[in-house]
From TrEMBL:
One of its GO terms (molecular function) is ATP binding. Keywords: ATP-binding, Nucleotide-binding. SUPFAM superfamilies: P-loop containing nucleoside triphosphate hydrolases (SSF52540). The keyword Hydrolase does not apply. This is Competence protein ComM. It comes from bioreactor metagenome. The keyword Transmembrane helix does not apply. PANTHER family: COMPETENCE PROTEIN COMM (PTHR32039:SF7), MAGNESIUM-CHELATASE SUBUNIT CHLI (PTHR32039). Pfam families: Mg_chelatase (PF01078), Mg_chelatase_C (PF13335). Residues 1-191 form the Magnesium chelatase ChlI-like catalytic domain.
Length: 300
């Protein structure tokens, strides 16, 4: 989650019910870096157009967190009405769009995310005109590993075909746009009763902000703020790998039949991990860790 927050990477959480997937997603805004003035201006404009600005004389200073229900329509997600207004993806601009129970969303709703996730904007066409709204959101999703939620446990009675059909509700192209996949482990009794003091969100946010500042300095003339926003050309320019890291990525690309999009996402995640490690060059351990977070996506 810290890597996702540091580089603004899309992330999918999968695990049994009650393992903290939704809680982690809802706590994510607490570790995201503060908005820049430019980001704050953009978000405020969108909420003003939508009529959702609570105080018309002030800027929005916190990152949006939107969590539409799985019964939401494609129009509600992308935007619509006679005079096109921003939908959930634009209201999540520079913030988080969280889809809980991802496979429960209608197929056409999920497919409507593909173009905005790729382009960072959404174009809405209606009889009265066409308008384009920004949609540079961080996509966060949660799902169970099977219909009953207990895959790999004695409580699971799902058949192979049921599991395949359940996962098949999410298309390959959409999964290819997700950077990081995390399996949340079951919570044990000792976890719940542990007296160990964990680090706070504020402490994690300090590290995330430090990594974000590295990116702001690097991309000050590029018009982007995070590693996840790198174009293919910029990825080649800024994601410099040492020789053994290059060999590792080449082997993975050929053996796993990765797409060009997946290849660039691995480099971007590696860039974020290297930034967190304080390294200008992407090393083997950075690419190896990045590959681990793409395991599920590559096996779909």
């Amino acid at each position: 989650m810290e890597i996702a927050a540091s580089g603004y990477h899309n992330i999918l959480l999968s695990g049994h019910p009650g393992t903290g997937k939704t809680m982690l997603a809802k706590r994510l805004p607490s570790i995201l870096p503060d908005l820049t003035f430019e980001e704050s201006i953009d978000i405020t404009k969108i909420y003003s157009v939508s009529g959702l600005l609570k105080n018309s004389s002030s800027l929005i200073t916190s990152r949006p967190f939107r969590s539409p229900h799985h019964t939401t329509s494609a129009a509600a997600l992308t935007g619509g009405s006679k005079i096109p207004k921003p939908g959930e993806i634009s209201l999540s601009h520079y913030g988080v769009l969280f889809l809980d129970e991802l496979p429960e969303f209608k197929r056409n709703v999920l497919e409507s995310l593909r173009q905005p996730m790729e382009d960072g904007q959404v174009t809405i066409s209606r009889v009265n005109g066409t308008i384009t709204y920004p949609s540079k959101f961080m996509f966060v999703a949660a799902m169970n590993p099977c219909p009953c939620g207990y895959l790999g446990d004695t409580r699971c009675h799902c058949t192979a075909s049921e599991i395949s059909k359940y996962k098949g509700r999410i298309s390959g192209p959409l999964m290819d746009r997700i950077d990081i996949y995390i399996e949340t482990p079951d919570v044990t009794y000792s976890d719940l009763n542990s007296a160990e003091v964990c680090e706070t969100s504020a402490e994690i946010k300090k590290r995330v902000t430090a990594t974000r500042n590295v990116q702001l300095a690097r991309y000050k003339n590029e018009g982007i703020f995070f590693n996840s926003q790198l174009s293919p050309k910029q990825t080649t320019k800024y994601c410099i790998l040492e020789k053994n890291a290059q060999d590792f990525v080449k082997t993975a690309f050929e053996s796993l039949n990765l797409s060009a999009r997946a290849y660039h996402k691995i480099l971007k995640i590696s860039r974020t991990i290297a930034d967190m490690d304080g390294s200008d060059i992407i090393k083997l351990e950075h690419t190896a860790e990045a590959m681990q977070y793409r395991g599920y996506v590559n096996n779909l």
